[in-house]
Amino acid sequence: MRIKTIGIMTSGGDAPGMNACVRAVTRAAIYEQWKVFGIYRGWEGLISGDIKELNTEDVSNIIQRGGTILKTARSEEFRSEEGRAKAAENLRKFNIDALVVIGGNGSLSGAEALAREQDVTVIGIPGTIDNDLYGTDSTIGYDTALNTIVECVDKIRDTATSHDRIFFVEVMGRDAGFLAQNSAIAAGAEAAIIPEDKTDIDQLATFIGRGIRKSKNSSIVIVSEKDGGAMHYAERVRTEYPEFGVRVSILGYLQRGGKPSAYDRILASRLGVASINALKEGQRNVMVGIKNDQIVYVPIARAAKLDKPIDKELINDLYVLSI
Ligand code: F6P
Q1: Other CB atoms within 10 A of residue 157 CB
Q2: How far is the CA of 283 from the centre of ligand 1 (A)?
Q3: Using a 6 Å cutoff on CB, does residue 226 contact ligand 1?
Q4: Distance CA 172, CA 300 (A)
């Protein structure tokens, strides 16, 4: 099918660089003389028909802005087949030949279901601070969030050192430990507690058992938000090791906002253009990703369903470096 019109939306949690990507998709499509419709508030807006045409000026002056000008939402209605049928009806009403979805795991799973049930052409673009999508080395927003965390931990370290305290710093990532593990390495933390390394070892006991306080008077542990997060570990230390001064800092939504880094802007721009190239080449229902700095196409069903493993060497590296 020759494409004449596309729809573009952001869905799920906002991530820095989504705007840069909306700009890139819009401009690359207009360059091909295609029409572009912006779909507002993710799947919610597609179901309710919150859809407006975008021109090149509509995406001016947004490359540097965090959040998403298209707004975003997590839609309950789209989880049902009826909801997805309504969404497909609106795509037909606006003569949209293909839908470009920028989002994380849940959003791309939704896109996959829509494509399968309604014979809609979708292209996924990985946009989430969690970096948890299979088939791509990085996701839009991850680098910026990582840098935000490192900046915060650098500040927390001042208090940790001045007061000789153990700080448990909780970071986002949902089921994935990429933000926790890599921010721990970048900020020089003593340990990271991540979901991928929780099988049979007690990470807290390991950390304390290494006698961290013998050589250092303060320490920073980065904890993934899953399973009770930082509070859980702080409580355990307070009861099991009352001799330590313990504090918790939950970074929360600070991690999702702010100007995208140069890396995220470039990634967003490349993936945005790549989504249009994929459609020109006749690709359907793939996610565009980046592997070893090359653009790749990954079947959207695989990207959404398969787990992205964390490199176990990173776990060892942190362990070695925290003596
Ligand atoms: O997926 C991005 C993310 O920020 C996760 O790290 C976090 O668990 C979740 O979104 C929070 O979602 P919400 O914005 O719905 O509270």
Answers
A1: 18
A2: 30
A3: no
A4: 24
Q: What φ, ψ does residue 79 adopt, rounded to 5°?
A: -70, -20
Pick the CATH number of 142-256 from 3.40.50.2000, 3.10.20.600, 3.40.50.460, 2.10.109.10: 3.40.50.460
Q: pLDDT tens for residues 282-322?
A: 999 999 999 999 999 999 999 999 999 999 999 999 999 98
Note the helical H segments in the chain.
18-31, 42-48, 81-93, 105-118, 142-163, 178-187, 203-209, 212-215, 229-240, 262-280, 300-305, 312-321
Helix (H, G, I), strand (E, B) or coil at 71: coil
Angle among Cα 10, 16, 19 to the nearest 5 degrees reads: 50
CA-proximal residue: ligand 1, atom 10 (nearest): 13
Pick the CATH number of 5-141+260-305 from 3.90.550.10, 3.40.50.1820, 1.20.120.1770, 3.40.50.450: 3.40.50.450
For ligand 1, say whether the CB of 74 is within 6 Å of any of its atoms: yes
- The answer to whether 11 and 105 have CB atoms below 8 angstroms apart is no
- C-beta neighbour count of 130 within 10 angstroms: 24
pLDDT digits (tens, 9 = 90+) for 118-168: 999 999 999 999 999 999 999 999 999 999 999 999 999 999 999 999 999
DSSP string, 130-196: T---TT-S--BTHHHHHHHHHHHHHHHHHHHHHHT-EEEEEE--TT--HHHHHHHHHHT-SEEE-GG
98 - beta bridge partners? 6, 121
**Could you give the residue numbers annotated as active site?**
130
**Ligand 1 pocket check: which of 107, 175, 251, 256 to mutate, most ligand atoms within 8 Å of Cβ?**
256
Buried b / exposed e over 204-239, threshold 16 CB at 10 Å, is beebbeeebbeeeebbbbbbbbbeebbebbbebbee
Residue extents of the structural domains in the chain: 5-141+260-305, 142-256
